[in-house]
Each structure stands twice: as structure tokens, then as C-alpha cells.
# Entry
Amino acid sequence: MSSDDELAGRLRAGDQAALRVAYERHGAAVLYLAQRLLGNRADAEDVTQVTFVAAWNGRDSFDPQRGTMLGWLLGIARRKAVDRLRSAARDEKKAETVRAQPAPVQAVETPERIVDRLVVADELDRLPAEQRRTLELAFFDDLTHPQIAAVTGLPLGTVKSHIRRGMANLRRRWEVDGAALGSRSADSSRAL
Amino acid sequence: MQHLDPDRLILLALSEELEELTESDHLATCPDCRHEMRALRDVAGIGSEVQDLRDLPAPPEHVWHAVVEGIAAAPAPVADLTEHRARVRRPRSRWLVPVLAAAAAAIVAVAGTVAVDRFTGRAPDEQVTARATLNPLATVPASAGGDALVLADGQLRIDVRNLPLTTGFHEVWLLDPDQPGKMVALGNLPGTPEAVLPLPPGTDLNRYRVVDVSDEPHDGDAAHSGNSLLRGTLTR
# Structure
């Protein structure tokens, strides 16, 4: 799998196949974020399209030193989706509809939290298989370390060290790309 | 002050082990370790929410086609060229790009007039209603180019030179520069340097004013490949 560094280089050189690689890798996450924010499939597909066109036009601004390709794309998508929500709100105002605003369906789910989840999910998929497996059992099945050792047949010490390393990797990635801490990667795409 | 062992903090954050008294005391008084602990708990919390995100469905293929079309209809190549040349680490001054673009546009305008004179001189009976000089995009050899004339009888006469070889074919489009993705397909270029293509009746040339020549693969996909070679804006 080509790295973000290599992809960035190919994008800068104007290689559209590199954009296709980024799209195949991250298009699903971009669409998911847009759909969660906009609550509407057609708008979400539009924002996905606009995001990748903006990524192409602004490809010089992607810096792999500051964040991953996924973090960068999600930063663009988030702004495009928020722009759309704002302009929809403006249209609503213009129409001067007097009716009460319906409460947003997912008011508790912030864009930041969705971005965080997508970034952590992506990192989880990148972990070495055993690290990933032990963390899945801990996160999703709520198993204790001894239970994980029993299920996987790994020695308890190995389970613990997989969990420790896996957690350290997730945390590092979250700090680089996560939205809650004020995504640094988002800075480089602010103008898009 | 001796901080808690980072590995130990991870186990505590996962609530896997109970804090010992000395550890509780330390956490109560050490903001660094508390911050560390909170961050790890956040990560664990997020981690437990990602199960549904593992195999997200890919966007439908028509979204990708729209991306490709959006890129094809991106701003004029002149701006792209200045972007590439001026790619420096410091912020570009705000006026430089418009000035370069304006200068380039002036050159294009002059070159366009010359080309059209040559053209119309050869076919004096043809009435030209709009014209465009076609310039190569950044990825295309600089020697490539062409001219396009809209004739009063509703046809587009196009002449191209030094196009890169293709394993597919070259197709001519009219793009709406204000609405990425909106375009009209005019037809493909024969092997000859010159071709006359009919414009669909009723085409709004004020809107679809960018002539675009693309390289299309034989993939049975009628949409724009996104691989534009030449482009120019029609002027009257």
C-alpha cells in the first residue's frame, strides 16, 4: 500500500490516479461523515464530490508531516458540510418560515466526535493483526485481559503488551488527526 | 516527582486494574498524569464506538464521475501553471496570481487574434461568431495547442496540433466554468488536424464557454475522463 507521503508526491505532480487511490481508501469515511452531519444522502454525496474536487485543486496544501491524508480529507469535508448547513439555514431564514425549528436528530453528536471515531477506526485497521484483535475484544466485547488471553490463546503478558502498544498507536494517531484537540491537519486545508 | 509508568496508565485507563493508593495520591496531585489518563480514557471511549465504522460502504461510482467532471471543469490552466511555478514555502503575495493570470490572458487574447486572422484568411466566406485559442494544460507538452471557431451556421471548427498520443481518442467538450461538472459533449476528433463538429442546437455559449479537448480511454464510459489536454475560453 502506498504511503501518504508517496500519494502526496503523486498528487502534487498532477497524477489523477493518486486521487483515485485516496478516494478508494477514504471516500467511504468522507461520505459517512457528510451523511451524519447533513442527514441526507443526496447532500452527502454532493459534499463528497465537492471535497475530492477541492482536495485536487488544493493538493499542494496537503502536508504529510502535519497529518494523514484521511485527517486532511475529513477536515475539508467537515467544512464543506458545515458551509452547506449554514447556507441551508440562511435560505430557511430568507423564506421567513415562522414554524418552529424541528430539533436536530443527532444534537449530541458533534462533528469532532465523528471525525475522532473515523480516525481511530482507520488506525485500528492499520494495527498489526494481533494488536488489533486484542483491542477489538477489549473495546467491542468488553473482555478483560485474562478473558482475551483465554479467547485468543495468547499468554497474558503478550495480551497486555499488545493492548499497551495498540493503545499508544491509537492515541498518537488521535492526537495527530483527531478533531477534538483542534486538528492540526485541518489548518493546512483551511483555505479549501 | 516520579510520574506513573506510561504502560501502567494505559491499563488503569482501560479500568483493567485498580489504582493502588500511591497511584491515586499521585493522580490527585499531578496534572500531567491526570491529563494523560484522561486522554487515554477518551481514546478507549472512542475506540469502543467504532465497531460500526469498520467496513463502511464505498460511495457509488457516480460520485467519482462527478469528481472527475468537477476537476475537468476546474479554473483555467493559466492559474494552474502559475500555482506550480510559484510553489514556494512562504505565502504567496495576494496580488501576484491575478496579475500573472491577467498578463497571460492578455497574451492569449493577442495570440487568439493572430490565429483567427490566419483562419479567416483561409476561409473568408465563413462567418465566425466566437473564437478560442486552446492552450495545453500543465501536464501536456507546451508545443500542443489549437484554435476553435464557432461558425454562424452552428458548427465548431477546431484545429489542433501536437496532441500527446493516446491509446483511446480525443473528445471535444464545452464546459461551464461557473458550475464544475456541467458540460456538453461535442464529439470526437478524427485523426486529422482539423475537424468541424455540430453544436447541439440551443447551446448557451455564454454559459458553456470553455472549449476542452480530453483524452478518453476506450472504457465505454461516456463521461469526461478528467484528463483534459487543451482548453480555451470562447470570446466574441
The longest strand of chain B covers residues 128-136. Chain B has six helices and eight strands. Residues 96-122 of chain B form the longest helix (27 residues).
